Amino acid sequence: MRNLKNKRAQLTIFVILAIAIVAILIIIFYPQISKYTNPLIQLDVDVKSCLEKNIRSSLNDTLLHGGAIKPQLYFNYNNISLNYLCYTGEWYKNCVMQSPLLKQEIETQINSQTQNKLVACINEVENKLKSRGYNVKMTGTRKVGIEIQPSKILLIPDVQMIVEKGDTKQEYSSNSLKTEINSQAYDLIMIASSIQNFEARYGDTIVETYMAYYPDIKVEKKKQSDGTKVYIITHRNTGEKLQFAIRSLSWPPGYAIQ
Question: pTM value?
Answer without folding.
Answer: 0.81
